[in-house]
């Protein structure tokens, strides 16, 4: 058997493994997995497209970003949503998925973690490959594992609280590809400790510059560390890592130069158009300069399934100068109707649809680091640890807004609390519909009296309310997992 076939067999074995019922908690069991032996095969395995994904869009259905429409509409109807989407949207108690149903966020993450553990544990024993090459490949795998666990613990666990993290239930930590082992729900503190350990190894052994946006480098590790420490409330560490990302030249795309393509035959990826350069919004392959690391979250298919929540639309009106136009609102959202080609028009009177239709990256982006850094500057100022924090935060926000808002003017600098609200609202506008990021922000900000809020959803005239800090913000373990492992504790919701 040649190496190509061996690689294909291994990938197939991993795929089959996660679809075969058994008694362990992940509801998976491999049947005669054959592991590669040579370094190059593991290197190719890390290049597999399955490892380029992260997160799942269904978590957006619990947030204040979306609205589902009435039965009379063509798209985005509550009645046509899937059961798990309806359960989240109406804030149902208990399970999100029915018995025997797959939770794609959970299962896909643990599939990838298994593959990453194979690489991490097997590469040191390869007879070929230099020690430097092996460390770099392991660093890529450990970075990706850290990314997976950061998403999992924030979806299925309580938000990190230093006072309770060592008791709060998180998710199981798997560091081996051995299947016959006992499993438990590790604490939130333990999961974060593992994330930081993996990131520290990655920061030491990843290359300074990756060969493409699909692979992590040191800048990506700093970005993920900044996100991790932000969620932990460690603003000094988050600032330090975000500043390392910001050492590069300004890569922001100037949205003020773009319009909706006047060519009625141009839609999809050609919808957002720069008339000066006669080019569409840049795809990943064309070199979108804002991207740090590409990750697929399925956002394109999600776009026409929901409408924009009026709460989010209202935020786009805040801090908008007279006569100015926020291009994120005008380019990526459509009111009442949307033309998709020369003759096809979709109508949804009275609603606004998110129709971004450009190459959407659900991974790590430069603008997220700008917003993280601005938030850290203000919070450290409030803690008496950075005297120039407010000024630095406004400088970053103005820099971002100048590339997003036509006829923008500098924001008036206010007190720290007002500055923090400005930064957080800018974060919401910039990161709208970016997978689970809004859910995680809701969970962390609900811990603060000034920013906690109720999420309200509507089905016609019926209102559904999710109070701040409600346990329904935390996703339950899938029923299939509990059925296979009744000893695993389930959080009440």
Uncertain stretches of 5 or more adjacent residues: 1-32
Question: Sheet with the most strands?
Answer: 3 strands, antiparallel
Order of helices and strands: HHEHHHHHHEEEEHEHEHEEEHHEHHEEH
Number of helices: 16
Global mean pLDDT:
89
Q: Any idea what the shape is?
A: globular
Count of DSSP E strands? 13
In order across it, which strands form the biggest sheet? 2-3-4
Strand content: 5-15%
**Structural class by helix and strand composition:** mainly alpha
The termini sit apart by: 51 Å
Topology:
Blueprint: H1 3-17, H2 39-46, E1 66-67, H3 83-89, H4 104-122, H5 131-156, H6 188-205, H7 218-232, H8 235-245, E2 259-260, E3 272-274, E4 279-280, E5 291-293, H9 299-302, E6 307-308, H10 310-315, E7 325-326, H11 327-332, E8 333-339, E9 345-354, E10 364-365, H12 366-382, H13 389-402, E11 405-406, H14 416-430, H15 437-445, E12 455-459, E13 462-466, H16 479-484
Antiparallel strand pairs: 1-6, 2-3, 3-4, 5-10, 7-11, 8-9, 12-13
Helix pairs in contact: 1-2, 2-5, 4-5, 5-6, 6-7, 7-8, 7-12, 8-12, 12-13, 12-14, 13-14
Give an account of the 3D structure:
With 493 residues, the chain is mainly α. 40% of the residues lie in helices and 10% in strands. It has helices at 3-17, 39-46, 83-89, 104-122, 131-156, 188-205, 218-232, 235-245, 299-302, 310-315, 327-332, 366-382, 389-402, 416-430, 437-445, 479-484, and strands spanning 66-67, 259-260, 272-274, 279-280, 291-293, 307-308, 325-326, 333-339, 345-354, 364-365, 405-406, 455-459, 462-466. Strand 8 (333-339) and strand 9 form a beta hairpin. It is globular and about 65 Å long. It starts with a helix and ends in a 9-residue tail after the last helix.
């Amino acid at each position: 058997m040649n190496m190509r076939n061996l690689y294909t067999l291994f990938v197939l074995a991993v795929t089959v493994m996660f679809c075969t019922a058994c008694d362990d908690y992940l509801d998976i069991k491999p049947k005669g997995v054959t592991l590669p032996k040579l370094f190059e095969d593991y290197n190719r395995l890390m290049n597999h497209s399955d490892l380029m994904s992260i997160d799942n869009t269904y978590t957006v259905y619990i947030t204040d970003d979306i609205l589902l429409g009435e039965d009379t509409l063509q798209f985005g109807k509550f009645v046509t949503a899937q059961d798990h989407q309806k359960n989240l949207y109406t804030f149902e108690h208990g399970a999100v998925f029915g018995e025997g149903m797959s939770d794609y966020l959970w299962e896909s993450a643990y599939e990838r973690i298994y593959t990453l553990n194979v690489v991490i544990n097997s590469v040191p024993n390869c007879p070929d490959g230099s020690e430097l090459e092996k460390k770099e490949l392991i660093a890529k795998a450990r970075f990706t594992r850290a990314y997976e666990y950061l998403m999992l613990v924030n979806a299925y666990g309580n938000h990190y609280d230093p006072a309770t993290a060592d008791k709060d239930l998180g998710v199981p930590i798997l560091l081996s590809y051995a299947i016959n082992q006992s499993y438990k729900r590790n604490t939130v503190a333990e999961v974060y400790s593992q994330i930081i350990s993996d990131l520290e190894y990655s920061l030491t052994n990843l290359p300074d510059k990756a060969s493409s946006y699909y692979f992590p480098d040191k800048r990506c590790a700093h970005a993920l560390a900044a996100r991790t420490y932000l969620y932990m409330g460690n603003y000094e560490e988050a600032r330090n890592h975000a500043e390392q990302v910001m050492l590069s030249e300004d890569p922001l795309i100037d949205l003020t130069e773009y319009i909706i393509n006047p060519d009625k035959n141009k839609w999809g990826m050609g919808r957002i158009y720069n008339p000066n350069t006669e080019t569409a919004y840049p795809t990943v392959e064309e070199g979108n300069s804002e991207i740090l690391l590409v990750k697929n979250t399925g956002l394109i298919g999600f776009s026409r399934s929901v409408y924009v929540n009026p709460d989010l639309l209202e935020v786009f009106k805040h801090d908008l100068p007279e006569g100015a136009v926020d291009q994120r609102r005008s380019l990526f959202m459509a009111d009442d109707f949307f033309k998709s080609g020369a003759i096809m028009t979709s109508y949804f009177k009275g609603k606004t649809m998110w129709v971004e239709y450009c190459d959407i990256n659900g991974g790590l982006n430069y603008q997220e680091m700008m917003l993280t850094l601005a938030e850290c500057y203000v919070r450290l100022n409030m803690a008496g640890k950075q005297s120039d924090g407010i000024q630095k935060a406004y400088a970053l926000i103005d820099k971002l807004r100048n590339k997003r808002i036509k006829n923008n003017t500098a924001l008036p600098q206010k007190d720290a609390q007002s500055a923090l609200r400005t930064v957080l609202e800018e974060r919401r506008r910039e990161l709208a519909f970016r997978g689970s990021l809004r859910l995680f922000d809701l969970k962390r900000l609900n811990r603060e009296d000034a920013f906690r809020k109720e999420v309200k959803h509507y089905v016609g005239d019926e209102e559904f309310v999710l109070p701040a800090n409600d346990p329904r913000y935390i996703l339950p373990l899938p029923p299939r997992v509990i059925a296979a492992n009744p000893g695993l504790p389930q959080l009440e919701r």
